[in-house]
Amino acid sequence: MLQDRKSFAAWLQAAPMMLIFALFFILPLVFVTIVSAWDYNEYEMLPAFSLRGYTDTFEGCIAELPGLCTILKTYLKTLKLCLLTWVLTLLIGFTVAYFLAFHVRSKTWQIVLSLLCTIPFWTSNVIRMIAWIPLLGRNGLVNKGLQGAGLIQQPVEWLLFSEFSVVLALVHLFTFFMVVPIFNSMIRIDKRLIEAAYDAGATGWQTLVNIVIPLAKPGIVIGSIFVITIVMGDFVTIGVMGGQQIASAGKIIEARLNALQFPAAAANAVILLGITIMIISALTRIVDIRKEL
Amino acid sequence: MGDKRSRSFYVLAAFFAAYVLFLYGPMIAIYILSFQGPDGGLTFPMNGVSLVWFSKVFAGAGIVDIGAAFKRSLKLGLVVMVLTVVLSVSAGMAFRKSFRGATFLFYVAIASLIMPSIITSLGIALEFRLLDDFIIKSGAEGWTTAMGFLPQALVRTLPGPCRLAF
After folding, report:
1. What is the dihedral of CA B145, B150, B155, B160, to 10 degrees?
2. Which chain B residues are closer than 8 Å to A257 by Cβ?
3. Are A89 and A175 in contact (CB under 8 A)?
4. A2-21 and B102-114 helices cross at what angle (nearest 10)?
């Protein structure tokens, strides 16, 4: 009886959050799925079953074989940006987390240094990416500096509004999402294990490969999931830093939305969701998320 | 790991310093450029130093009314903060006991965190659009449009504090 009442109270406490998620997360996803199979004309959606959203998306894919159609090219480009960003954030994030967890000895300094990395997150993403523009532009600080040093004669063009600037901005924005989970797993590693490895004569590199990396794997996977899902759906960073010239999975959805082609946008969202889920489920094979949070 | 700092410490410390510089560098450049002279743009070297751009912002030379924009942002932030804290602390307390659907709710919260935001935004936009259409059809007009922003902000911020409350 007491157990029942306790469970009911718990359910009441959780109810508001359940309601929010049901109304503004699950229901929207259901609508996206339904609307993706609706028909549409130039200015409105028509509630009748049609796979036009999907067929329009893959238009020309068979006709253009063996060449790649637009949608496949776009997804390949998105995956490429995603892969580059993932590798870079992983390398930088792992190194930073390793330094904070194993080389910074006092708790106070760990907190101070982590805070130092967190403060930039107090401003919006857009401001932080726009900040790169005066540095990378044709007359930007980097070009002026390189010219001043006599290393180049002409200003370098590929610094801004290119894949380079997109990846740079993505790494800049999201490396910390990699640092936090990896740091969290590293801090839980029993220091005696490291000492034991040292006593047994392992080199620093052997300790890293055989002890630290396997035990930090959950953090690595969680950080990877965060970075990959953000980059796969991103359209703001790719838009701003790519000079609106680089197509990405997120930008297709945005373009369809702006054209008021909701079913087509929804179909693209379903495709993007499917691909993201595939990547995540592949990653979660390696680690049980629930155990780690 | 003796008492003396090893060489790898200094290498990693330098790497960390470079990372912090990478984080802050562009922003510092922007802050400096905000004091650009009246003839300058978003480029170095600066054309003199002035507070011209700040006075332009506060004079409302832009497209939007800066005061109203700030007030609106502040209001939105406050509403989202209060709702998030209340809902999450409550749900966090629920998670301390057990209840039916706890695991499911947990996974939904995680999923909402890693769902590409454009998909949720699109869904919420569709939701309100369909609701709008429905209401217009049933005769009552013009009270739901443009309400879609707050829920999106909420879904984004909810799981964070909830995790703290565990």
Report:
1. 180
2. 122, 125
3. yes
4. 20
Hey, is the C-beta of A193 within 8 angstroms of any chain B C-beta? no
Question: Which residue range(s) make up the domain with A245?
Answer: 68-292
Is residue A252 assigned to a domain? yes
Chain A CB contacts of B9 below 8 Å: 103
- Closest residue in chain B to residue A232, using alpha carbons only: B116
Chain B residues touching residue A18 (CB < 8 angstroms): 101, 105
Give tens-digit pLDDT for B94-153.
888 878 888 888 888 888 888 888 888 888 888 888 887 777 777 654 444 445 455 555
Q: What is the mean pLDDT of chain B?
A: 75
A45 inside domain: no
User: Is position A49 within any domain?
Assistant: no
Does some domain include residue A126?
Answer: yes
* ∠ CA B22-B24-B29, rounded to 5°: 105
Chain B interface includes A195 (CB < 8 A):
yes
Confidence band (pLDDT; 50, 70, 90) for A116?
Answer: very high
Chain B neighbours among A 211-240 (CB < 8 Å)? 225-226, 229-230, 232-235
Within 8 A by CB and 6+ apart from B155, the residues are A20, A21, A24, A25, B112, B120
Residue, of A50 and B165, whose pLDDT is higher: A50
- Its ipTM equals 0.84
The tens digit of pLDDT for each residue in A265-286 reads 899 999 999 998 898 888 888 7
- Summarize pLDDT for A216-243 with one digit per residue, the tens: 998 999 899 999 999 998 888 999 898 8
Q: What is the band of B72 on the pLDDT scale with cuts at 50, 70, 90? A: confident
Contact criterion met (CB below 8 Å) for A2 and B93 = no
CB contacts of B116 in chain A (<8 Å) are 229-230, 232-234, 250, 272-273, 276
Domain total in chain A: 1
User: Which of A11, A120, A144 is facing B23, going by the closest CB pair?
Assistant: A120
Q: Give yes or no for a contact between A97 and A114, defined as CB atoms under 8 angstroms apart.
A: no
- On whether the CB atoms of residues A39 and A45 are closer than 8 A, the answer is yes
